[in-house]
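Deliverable D2.4 — example input (structure tokens):
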């Protein structure tokens, strides 16, 4: 059978596919592999199983047996004492956090601290006043009979329940920290020092971006110096940044001020000449001196071109929309109000005005602001008069003697605004910034008038100067306090409470010229300055008494009664176009009638003279008030 198959295979194939060598090799491999697989695999698995059992038994026995190192390490706690030093407390072997109570720790710490050299000063009285601080708890060292139940339970708790472990830090704290659980140590209350300047939390900053707190920065720097023993350049830089930088301000909120000539002439006439006494320094001024006065200026804010005579350029498609830059804000004075002024003897001797009533306008004279609001007016500035020669600065040479050489040009060319004027004007501006807002209240002008000659100039205060006055930096004493030193004398150079920067240098003397911004002064007739029936302006009298701004003069009262009974239309309203007269009438007339009267006067002043008539009921009550006063 085999031969027949071989012969048939050889018949159809040219050569056999495998030789005899390959057949023999395959036969040998088939005999060897089954024998190795059946003998080796069971033996290897058995060996691996035995080794795993041995390793598992060894690890379990090592884990169940205690470590010799852990048995030998005793528990240690650290205690920070009152002087800041740290004392270590070591317990006996076998005492752990799960067996030790807090009371045991306190007794152990008291024994060790009393025996330690570092705690010799800790007497029994001091122990009663101390407590142990750990985490959020504070427990007294000495247990008393009046102790609360919560504290007693706390002493019986174990260290493990309280979260105290090996190496934890406990702190001795003053007894003031006792009570309910607190979140950390409470700092010892510090004694408050008397503040030399207005506290930042109490004051109102007119310009928050320019607000400084030099004293707070100085305290921080001194604290760092005590801790480190020296100052770094960063500390000096921080202290330098907390100083005000006084420099010339190029422009202010208002570009021009229009002052009514009737107001200026009436104000100059009210400043009556007064002969100087023999005790006063007659060498500082002329033989006669005018009485300084103050007044509040009320008006309106407008926008007009910076250069009115500038020709407009022809608009094209390429023209830029920059016309808003050509406009500026101006103030036009429409009325004036003079408060009651009673200068003290010291103010009269020092030739100073009395601005106390003006500084308390909102509290003492709210009807003035009400009438101004009904007329559409806002406070735009204040005006004061002076009698000494401030341009030549003779007073500065006599009083301060800053320069021994009389020919020094630095003493000449001074401006009429001194330190007292800067402080008074800035305080008024701050009050109106509180009332009207920072943006509207900063439009405030200071007008200075020389009494003997009538020379008038207008200024505005820089933002830094107003902020410095808000922080009470200028050391200008109040004349009402009875001060008799040279600091109360109006002067150009004013000392400050701490240093400030001028041209990069620190100084403590402020030149009032650096606080001023020049303002153009023009003239324009006001709408509520007072007019007579003939149509002309009345510059000789304001219609109210000089010693009481709420009482009409007999002449004005009589003129109002005659105008009310006359047949001439608008005669009464023409006389009532006087702000001071309206304020005087508001003292006795009800507020509802007063508002209707003021609104009628406002329409009349705007030009509606033929169609504006006064309500008969208001007119009747007004006549009753006028007749009662006569």
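Example output (designed residues):
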């Amino acid at each position: 059978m085999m031969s027949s198959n071989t012969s048939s295979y050889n018949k159809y194939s040219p050569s056999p596919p495998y030789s005899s060598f390959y057949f023999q090799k395959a036969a040998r491999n088939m005999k060897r592999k089954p024998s190795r697989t059946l003998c080796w695999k069971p033996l290897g698995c058995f060996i691996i199983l035995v080794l795993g059992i041995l390793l598992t038994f060894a690890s379990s026995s090592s884990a169940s047996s205690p470590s010799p190192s852990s048995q030998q390490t005793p528990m240690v706690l650290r205690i920070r004492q009152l002087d800041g030093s740290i004392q270590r407390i070591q317990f006996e072997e076998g005492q752990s956090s799960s067996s030790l109570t807090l009371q045991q720790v306190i007794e152990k710490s008291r024994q060790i601290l009393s025996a330690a050299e570092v705690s010799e000063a800790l007497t029994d009285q001091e122990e009663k006043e101390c407590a142990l601080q750990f985490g959020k708890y504070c427990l007294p060292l000495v247990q008393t009979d009046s102790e609360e139940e919560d504290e007693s339970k706390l002493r019986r708790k174990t260290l493990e329940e309280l979260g105290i472990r090996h190496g934890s830090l406990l702190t001795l704290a003053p007894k003031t920290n006792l009570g309910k659980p607190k979140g950390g140590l409470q700092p010892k209350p510090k004694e408050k020092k008397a503040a030399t300047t207005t506290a930042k939390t109490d004051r109102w900053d007119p310009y928050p971006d320019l607000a400084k707190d030099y004293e707070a920065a100085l305290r921080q720097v001194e604290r760092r110096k005590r801790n480190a023993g020296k100052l770094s350049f960063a500390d000096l830089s921080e202290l330098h940044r907390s100083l005000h930088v006084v420099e010339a301000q190029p422009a202010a909120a208002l570009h021009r001020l229009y002052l009514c000539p009737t107001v200026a002439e009436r104000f100059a006439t009210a400043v009556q000449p007064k002969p100087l006494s023999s005790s006063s320094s007659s060498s500082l001024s002329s033989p006669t001196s005018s009485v300084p006065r103050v007044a509040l200026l009320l008006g309106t804010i407008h926008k007009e071109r910076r250069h009115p005579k500038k020709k407009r350029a022809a608009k094209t498609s390429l023209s830029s929309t920059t016309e808003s830059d050509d406009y500026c804000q101006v103030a036009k004075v429409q009325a004036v109000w003079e408060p009651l002024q009673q200068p003290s003897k010291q103010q009269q001797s020092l030739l100073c005005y009395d601005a106390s009533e003006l500084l308390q306008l909102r509290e003492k004279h709210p009807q003035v602001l009400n009438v101004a609001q009904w007329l559409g007016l806002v406070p735009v500035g204040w005006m004061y008069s002076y009698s000494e020669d401030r341009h030549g600065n003779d007073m500065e040479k006599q009083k301060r003697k800053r320069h021994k050489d009389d020919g020094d040009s630095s003493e000449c060319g001074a401006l009429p605004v001194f330190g007292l004027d800067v402080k008074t004007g800035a305080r008024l501006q701050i009050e109106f910034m509180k009332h009207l807002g920072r943006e509207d209240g900063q439009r405030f002008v200071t007008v200075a008038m020389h009494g003997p000659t009538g020379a008038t100039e207008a200024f505005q205060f820089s933002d830094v100067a107003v902020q410095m006055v808000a922080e009470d930096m200028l050391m200008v004493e109040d004349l009402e306090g009875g001060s008799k030193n040279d600091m109360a004398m109006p002067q150009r150079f004013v000392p400050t409470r701490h240093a400030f920067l001028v041209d990069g240098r620190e100084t403590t003397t402020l030149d009032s010229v650096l606080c001023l911004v020049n303002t153009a002064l023009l003239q324009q007739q006001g709408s509520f300055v007072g007019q007579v029936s003939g149509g002309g302006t009345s510059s000789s009298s304001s219609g109210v008494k000089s010693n009481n701004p709420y009482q009409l003069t007999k002449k004005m009262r009589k003129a109002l009664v005659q105008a009310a009974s006359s047949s001439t239309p608008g005669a009464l309203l023409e006389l009532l176009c006087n702000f001071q007269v309206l304020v005087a009438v508001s003292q006795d007339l009800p507020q509802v009638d007063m508002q209707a009267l003021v609104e009628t006067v406002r329409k009349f002043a705007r030009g509606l003279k033929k169609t504006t008539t006064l309500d008969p009921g208001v007119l009747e009550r007004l006549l009753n008030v006028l007749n009662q006063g006569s």
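The CA atoms of residues 99 and 527 lie 95 Å apart.
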